[in-house]
Amino acid sequence: MHLEVDSVSLTYRTTRGPLQALSGLSFGLAEGEFVSVLGPSGCGKSSLLRLVTGLLPPSQGEIRLAGTRVEGPRQDVGIVFQSATLLPWKTVLDNVLVPARARGRVTPAQREDARQWLRAVGLEGFESHYPDELSGGMQQRVGIARAMLTDPRLLLMDEPFAALDAMTREAMMDELLRVWSGTGKTVLFITHSIPEAVYLSDRVLVMGPRPGTVVEELVIDLPRPRTPATMADPRYAALGVRLRDRFRAMPAHTPAGSESTP
Question: What is the rounded CA–CA span in Å between residue 49 and residue 23?
């Protein structure tokens, strides 16, 4: 497996006592696989991303990327956030180059790579624009280009389309699949949206209420490439129904403060 999450638990120490966010979480991603994590609010999805990036250490268990244990922040992991988090005083091109600049002087080759990624996400000609001149969808495309600039082993996406309107969200899903199919990157995608998870993914991992763990793994056996016609496929609807039924059957999460340490 390219990414391995092995029996991972996470407990936060708070003024009200220990709060267990994750418990016995185990799953893996093959190289080039697109996997979505779907779960209710507060189930630990964002905590999982922090663990995978090395920003938090697990209380128990181990995470490995390309066979190496994750023990701190990784430069070979790209992240796309819910908000594009662009620097308003920098141009589109300079925003894409932020990771390169953080590591030292920007080289001509890196600048050309940034231009190529902007072309790949459909933003050629916008290099000199500023973020406030772009739509929300265009800003998220800049965020994707920025995450891809360093050629990451793993791309993490934390609800990147949640703030977009429905039409823009559908367009961005197709844009993401086009970029992903052209790069073969491994993607771990966090979402609250069942239609989004079914449309994008090879597999969907369903997390239960806090303390979060994987309660179901659903293989999405829809043919690729996915297109708007995919949404009319009866199998697409059936997969969505199965996931909705799974969430309806979930119990409420354990009250805050009553969790035990892992």
Answer: 15
pTM to 2 decimal places? 0.90
Is the C-alpha dihedral spanning 77, 80, 82, 87 positive or negative? positive
**For range 41-61, the mean pLDDT:** 91
Contact 140, 172 (CB under 8 A): yes
Full domain range(s) for residue 107: 86-151
Task: Provide the β-strand partners of residue 27.
Answer: 5
- Sequence-ordered list of residues with C-beta below 8 angstroms from that of 248, at least 6 positions apart, any chain: none
Residue 139 resides in a domain: yes
Residue 9 CA: distances (Å) to CA of 18, 56, 180 = 13, 11, 30
Q: Is the pLDDT of residue 258 over 80?
A: no
CA distance 36 to 13: 28
Quick check: is 117 in a domain? yes
117-126 b/e with 16+ CB inside 10 Å = b?
A: bbebbbbeeb
Backbone φ and ψ for 108, nearest 5 degrees, come out as -55, -35
Distance CA 6, CA 60 (A): 9
* Alpha carbon 85 to chain centroid, angstroms: 15
pLDDT category at 92 given cuts 50, 70, 90 is: very high
Predicted confidence at residue 253, as pLDDT, reads 52
Over residues 103-116, the pLDDT tens digits come to 887 899 999 999 99
Q: Say what the pLDDT of residue 262 is.
A: 35
pLDDT for res 257: 45
Q: What's the domain count of the chain?
A: 1
